[in-house]
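B., you asked whether I could sanity-check this one before it goes into the benchmark set. Here's the sequence:
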Amino acid sequence: MENLIFTINAVLPIILIIALGYFLRRINFFDEKFLSVANKLCYKVCLPTLLFFNVYNIDSLAGINWKFILFIVLTILGLFIFGFIIVKVFVSNDKQKGVILQCSFRSNYAIIGIPLAIALAGEGSLAVGVASIVSAISIPLFNILAVISLSIFEKGEEGKIDIKNTLVKIVKNPLILGVFTGVIVLGIRYLLGSLNIDFSIKNDLSFLYKTIQDVSRIATPLALIVLGGQFTFSAVKDLRFQIILGTSLRVLITPIVCLSLAYLVGFRSVEFPALIALFGTPTAVSSVPMAAEMNQDDKLAGQLVVWTTIISAFTLFTIIMICKSIGLL
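And here's what the prediction gave me:
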């Protein structure tokens, strides 16, 4: 019952904020111009700051299980390849292929996953440290693959994939820049620590740390309100197949395959809270502003965020109950 209550408490606020955005748009509290500007603010400022903040606040890199990290990387790459094959076969619209592809492998680990992992593992446990380390690996990989997903189906003037343009988009992507800036600053912090120099942004530049923290707190609610404002139920009928396909890949096929594989490989209670959070959570909210900025089908991206979030409330409950019953939590 506690896990059910937690799952509801983790997912329902997201749904309610989306509903708030939808309601405010329906009563014309804001218009499309506001949504467009807010989308840019979220994508180029707030979400990169949130990712920087999450990476910078990783407590320790000591005792990393490299077998586990390798499993995470290979599994995400495997999901990307599998998703690529699925969209090539079943999706005809090029602007929808990348959106469904990123939905298949990209979870909401930063916003929902980490709190979920902490709740499942318990504050201060080794599993919480594992979950934090996973964020430093998965978030950059998710965002790099997301840029590739949303670029790879674009054709250049000669009808071929523009590899150079794809690489430029990866390097210039604000979310990736946010993560790698966090990694660099985190590395400097550990280097100074190894030299017995006690300095950190959090303690010695607390005004800057507080500013970064406050901006990062804007990211999730703003992204969800914008998402709700852009959401239209009329689009569900036209996108029914794409929604079913993307949602099934994200919250049904991915967790079943990846968690079963992790169990067979030999991972258990220390790793499973992070694995459930990584592979069982809905698709990332940031996938919507990213799709919009990269001229892909952001309406479909928004539908996928909403429906994977709703369905994951039920699938996560089932996953948690099963894992608990066989001693993985």
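One thing to flag: Residues 2-325 form a domain with the Na+/H+ antiporter like fold fold (CATH 1.20.1530.20). Otherwise nothing jumped out at me.
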